[in-house]
Amino acid sequence: MTARMQTICVCTSLAMAFATASARANLLVDPGFENNPTTNYFTVLNNFPGFQGFWGVEAATINGVDGPVVPPEGVRMLRMVSDGLIATQAFQTTDVTSYAALIDSGGATAQVSALFNANVQAAAAGMSIRFFSSGSWASPISAVFGNLVLDSNPATWEPVLVAPPVPVGTRWMVTELIYNNASLQGHAGYVDAARLVIVPEPTTLGLLTLGGMAIMRRRGRKL
């Protein structure tokens, strides 16, 4: 193989690695609330494996267009209302055992996001990603939260994003969508286009790049 061909092969491999990292599959099932019915949050959180891929909700329904609020993707969205306590929530569990090698190397980042909307001033929306060592609520490792105070324009969908490193030993994740009940003032809050991906953190990609450059240098010296 010529030096030029080796360089092309290594560069192509690196390009594919970067493309893969930026285009990971969404690990959430029905992230746009288009296809599956919801179930009770208690059921989901008490049986991670049995209800993986179901949205477990406290006080929410799947709706189409609701007054001035139009789904940003597809034809449906999640409509969340107060459950009478502090916050109204929706949860989905995800088995990430297939990512164990990357996670346990300390090189994985979880990118979790969703779009939020409310037809009321200063509604407080948020989301979290929770990490577990097994498929049970009784095995927590840690949790990371993000929040945003929304505008009152029903035509505006606003993103909330959290992107923490995945703790070593994580085997399950729980994505949580949240509205503060009091901030809704008796109105509904909406969610759509949820997303969960696991990607190598930048340092991992940097090592991959350096490794590729080292391969080119070693092979170049042999020619």
Spatial order of strands in the largest sheet: 1-2-5-10-7-8
Strand count? 11
Helix content: 10-25%
Summed over residues and divided by their number, the pLDDT gives a mean of 87
Which CATH first-tier class would you pick? Mainly Beta
Which consecutive residue ranges, at least 5 long each, have pLDDT under 50? 3-23, 204-223
Corresponding CATH architecture: Sandwich
How many domains comprise the coordinates? 1
Class by helix and strand content? alpha+beta
Radius of gyration: 21 Å
Largest sheet: 6 strands, mixed
Q: How many individual helices?
A: 5
Approximate strand percentage: 25-35%
C-alpha end-to-end distance = 10 Å
Q: What is the N-to-C order of secondary-structure elements (H for helix, E for strand)? A: HEHEEEEHEEEEEHEH
Overall morphology: globular
CATH fold description = Jelly Rolls
Spell out the CATH superfamily: Galactose-binding domain-like
Description:
The protein has a 6-stranded mixed β-sheet with strand order 1-2-5-10-7-8. The protein has a 5-stranded antiparallel β-sheet with strand order 3-4-11-6-9. The protein contains 5 helices and 11 strands; from the N terminus they run αβαββββαβββββαβα. It has a single domain, classed as Jelly Rolls (Sandwich), CATH 2.60.120. Residues 3-23 and 204-223 have low confidence and may be disordered. The longest helix is centred in the C-terminal third of the chain and has 21 residues, at 202-222. The N and C termini lie close together (10 Å). It is α+β, with helices and mostly antiparallel strands.
